[in-house]
Amino acid sequence: MPEHRSLKLTSKQEEVRRGVLAEAANRFPDDPEGRRRMEALAFQEGRFDPQAHATRGENSFGVFQMGPALQRLYGLDPEHPDSDRQIRAAADYLLKLSKDHNGDWNKVVQEFNLGRGNSRRLDRGGSNSQIEAFNSEYRPTHQEFLSLINQRENTSLPSSPSPQDEAIDTGVKHPFRGESERFKELLKIMMGGS
């Protein structure tokens, strides 16, 4: 996940955000949770920046921080970032995962972040450093983004928590814990000042 550097979206990030919202509405017309999850993932993963690169030694890049295998599958090129192509690829992949998991968006987000192998390991009760980071950092942050998006939409969707939704305290610092006012300000700006 890229480091947070600025509270304000650039005009390019805002343009990408509008593209994400349009594609999400197109791909998930009857699934408001899918639309909101796609927006939350785009913000969480790449801060709506098509040139964002992972900061933890991974080869993930772009709006949705797709890894090398997905880059190849969807024809993405880190040397020539194309936000529209990244958004369509992520929408295709999220739609596939949604079908694979019968619309269970908790499982979709889990597999999107962890990959299939680690997602299955987590389902079987296994653990490793990536799973621990998912439980302690990624899942809670995603739920916070989703909650604020839902507040913006004046809609409360059923949260359908999975058993893993209770984060395991591994001592890994959550990127926004203890910074809730900064987090809320960031999302207020991201969500159009509401």
Name a few traits of the molecule:
Lysozyme; disordered N terminus; mainly alpha
- Overall geometric form: globular
What is the percent of helical residues? 55-70%
Number of helix segments?
7
The helix/strand series, from N terminus to C terminus, equals HHHHHHH
CATH top level is Mainly Alpha
Report the end-to-end length measured between terminal Cα atoms.
25 Å
Arithmetic mean of pLDDT: 80
Largest sheet: number of strands, sense, barrel closure: none
CATH third-tier fold name: Lysozyme
Using the 3D structure, state the CATH architecture: Orthogonal Bundle
Compute the number of structural domains.
1
Strand content range: under 5%
DSSP E strands, number: 0
How does the helix and strand content classify structurally?
Answer: mainly alpha
pLDDT < 50 stretches? 1-7, 156-179
> How large is the radius of gyration?
16 Å
Give a structural overview.
α1 packs antiparallel against α2. The protein is built from 7 helices and no strands. The chain has a single domain, classed as Lysozyme (Orthogonal Bundle), CATH 1.10.530. With 194 residues, the protein is mostly helical.
